C-alpha cells in the first residue's frame, strides 16, 4: 500500500517533468526567453513535488527511500534534477535543459512503471552507512549526468561549427565551447570526490554487514570501473590537456558506465546488490 | 641533451614508471579486465566454462584465470605496477610541488604584470604606504595570507590563499598506496571462517586461541509475516577459561575481540537425537539440510519443519516459524545407499531394522557466524580518510595568488595587480575587479 498523497504527488511530478522537457524542446525552436523561464519554473515545481512525494514515502516507511528499483530510480532522477537546476540557476545555460531533462524524464518515467510497494528492509540493508552510500551516489550521479548533457551539447555545437561558420537557430542557444568544456570539467570535479565516497561508504557497509569490505561483486566492480574512467579523464586532462572533444567523449563514456552500473548490472548480471 | 640510449637502465625504468602513458594504460587495462570479471561468471569449476563457452574458449578462460580474475597473479601484478607508477609519480613531483606550495616571489618588474593571466590597475589618492596597507587589509579580509616588502619608495605585495590545494594529488596518491598496502597486508595476515553454532554451544576459533559461546539466538519478524526484521545472537567470548566479553550481535552490528570480528550472517534449525545401533547408544546433532555422519558408517540428512504441513503440490513445508507442529523429514544413508526416509515426530523412535533405531529428541536454532580477522582494515580506513582529504584539496581548494606593485602616481598612488588561479580563473578575475572597483578612496583612472 502506498499512500494516495505520495502517489498523486509523484504522478504530478512525472507530468510536470514531461511538461518541462517539452517546453525546453519548444525553447530550442522558438527561442523565447519566456519559454525557457517557464520551462525552468515547471521543472523546478516538478522537483518540489517529487521531493515532497519522497519525504512522505520516507515518513511512511520510516527510512530513506532507497531499497528497491523504484525508489532508487526515482532518487537517481531526483539527483540529476537537483544538480541540473542548480547549474541552470547558477550559470543560465538555457539549452542545457533540452539535454538533461530527457535523462531525468526517462528515469522518472521508468520509475513510474515499476512496482511501488513499500517493502520492509531485510536486515542487511538496515545500516546508516547504506543511507550515506546512497546519498553520495545520488550527488555523484547527478554531477556525472549533467556533465553528460553538457558533453552532448559540446559535440553538437562543435560539429556544427566545423561544418559552417554561422550558427543559426537552435545552435545559437548553445554556449561557446570553452564555457561548455569548463562546465563539463566542473561537474566531473564536483562529482569525483562523491563517487569516491560511494566506494568508501559501500565498503564500510559491506564490512559491517558481511565481514568483507570488498568482494568484487558486479555492482561494486562496475562502480570501480566508473571511478577509473573518470580518473583517466582527470589525468588526461591535467597532463595531456585532453579538453574539449576528448573530454566530452570521456564524460559520455563515464556516464554510460554509471548507467550500466545501475541498470545493466541489475538486469544483466547477478550479485549481492541484486535485490536493490 | 641526453639521448635515450645513454640513459642507464635504472633511469629508463624510472622514466617508464613516471610516464603518464603508462598510468593511463594501466588504469584503462584494470578497468577493462574488471569488465571481464563481471561478465564471465567467477569462481565456477572448469567444466562449467567448457559447457558454457565451448572447449577451446573454456580452456583459455582457465589458462588465464579468467574464472577468477580478481585473485589471479596477473591482476595483482597490474595492481602492483600501478602502485609502483603512482609512487614514482609522487616522488618525482615531490620537490617541485613542495616549492610550488611553500615558496613565493614578489614581482618587481612592471613588465611581469603585463603577461599575467589576470591583471588590473588602480589609482588612489592616498600615498603609497597607506594604499598598500589598505590593499593588504582587503586581501586579508578575503582570507588571503599577505606579505609586503618596501623597496625604493614602492611597496610590493604578495598574497595567496588555498595554497595547500596542490598537495591534494600528493595525498590522494599516497592514500591509494596505503589502501593497497592494507589490502595486501590483510590478505596475508588475516583469516576468514564460517561457523554454524547451535544455541548453547561453544565454538573454538582455532587461529585466535579463544572460544565463543552462543547463549541465545532470536529472530524478530515484521508483524505476523515470515519476513525477518532482524536477528540476534547473544555471544560470550571465553578466553583463558574466563568469560571476558558479552554482546548481543545482529546483522550490521558485529562483535570484535582481539581483532577477530563475529558477524551475524544466517540462521536455521538443528535437530538433536540419539541413535541405537547394535545396542550401543550415541547422541547426534544434525544441522537442517546438512548431511551429518552419525557413527557406524551411517549418515543422516534432516529437514526440520516447525509448523509442518504438506502443501497442495505434495511437498513438505511450514505454515509459520512457530514450533506448533514440529516434524523432521529425514533420510538415512549407509555410504551412498539410502536406507530409509520418512517424516518423524519428536520423541517417537524410528525403527530402521532390528539392530538400528533412531529417535529425534529435540530441536534448537543455530546461528551462522562469519568470523574474520583482517588487520589491514585500519590501514584501509585511514587510507580512505586521506583519500578524501586529498580529493577535497584537489577539487575544492583552489590556489589563488595575487601580486601587486604600489608606486607613486600623479595624485597619490598607482597600483598594478597580477593574479593567477589555474583552477578558479573566473572567480579570481571577479575578485580582482571588485578589489579595483570598490576602492574606498576614490579610484582615479
Ligand atoms: C587510481 C589511480 C589514481 C587516482 C585516483 C589519482 C588521482 C589523482 C588526482 C585526484 C589528481 C589531481 C587531479 C587534478 O588536480 O585535476 C591527480 C593528479 C596527478 N596524478 Fe594521479 N591518480 C591516480 C594514478 C596516477 C598514476 C598511476 C600516476 C603516474 C603516472 C599519476 C600521476 C599524476 C600526476 C603527475 C598528477 C598531477 C599532479 C600535480 O601536478 O600535482 N596518477 N591524481
Give a description of the structure.
- The complex is a heterodimer of chains A (276) and B (445).
- Chain A is mostly helical.
- Chain A is 77% helix and 0% strand.
- Chain A has helices at residues 4-30, 33-61, 69-91, 97-112, 128-163, 177-210, 218-240, 244-268.
- In chain A, helix 2 (33-61) runs antiparallel to helix 3 (69-91).
- The model of chain A is unreliable at 271-276 (pLDDT under 50).
- Chain B has 445 residues and is α+β, with helices and mostly antiparallel strands.
- Chain B folds into three domains: 4-100; 120-162 and 400-444, 2-Layer Sandwich (TATA-Binding Protein), CATH 3.30.310; 191-373, no CATH class.
- Chain B contains ten helices and 21 strands.
- Chain B has helices spanning 9-18, 20-39, 46-53, 55-63, 73-102, 111-114, 128-141, 167-189, 377-396, 425-437, and strands spanning 118-124, 145-151, 154-161, 191-198, 202-205, 210-221, 228-239, 242-250, 255-257, 260-277, 280-287, 291-293, 298-305, 308-310, 316-318, 327-334, 337-344, 349-353, 356-373, 400-409, 412-420.
- In chain B, helix 3 crosses helix 4 (55-63) and helix 8 (167-189) packs antiparallel against helix 9 (377-396).
- The A-B interface holds A 120, 122-124, 126-127, 182, 189-190, 192-193, 196-197, 200, 203-204, 207-214, 216, 218, 221-222, 224-225, 228-229, 231-232, 235-236, 239-240, 265, 269 and B 20, 23-24, 27-28, 30-31, 34-35, 37-39, 42, 70, 183, 192, 222, 225, 227-231, 250-254, 261, 263-265, 370-372, 374, 377, 380-381, 384, 387-388, 391-392, 395-396, 426.
- The complex binds protoporphyrin IX containing FE.
- Protoporphyrin IX containing FE sits between chains B (18, 20, 23, 27, 82, 85-86, 89, 93, 97, 166, 168-169, 172-173, 176, 391, 394) and A (231, 234-235, 238-239).
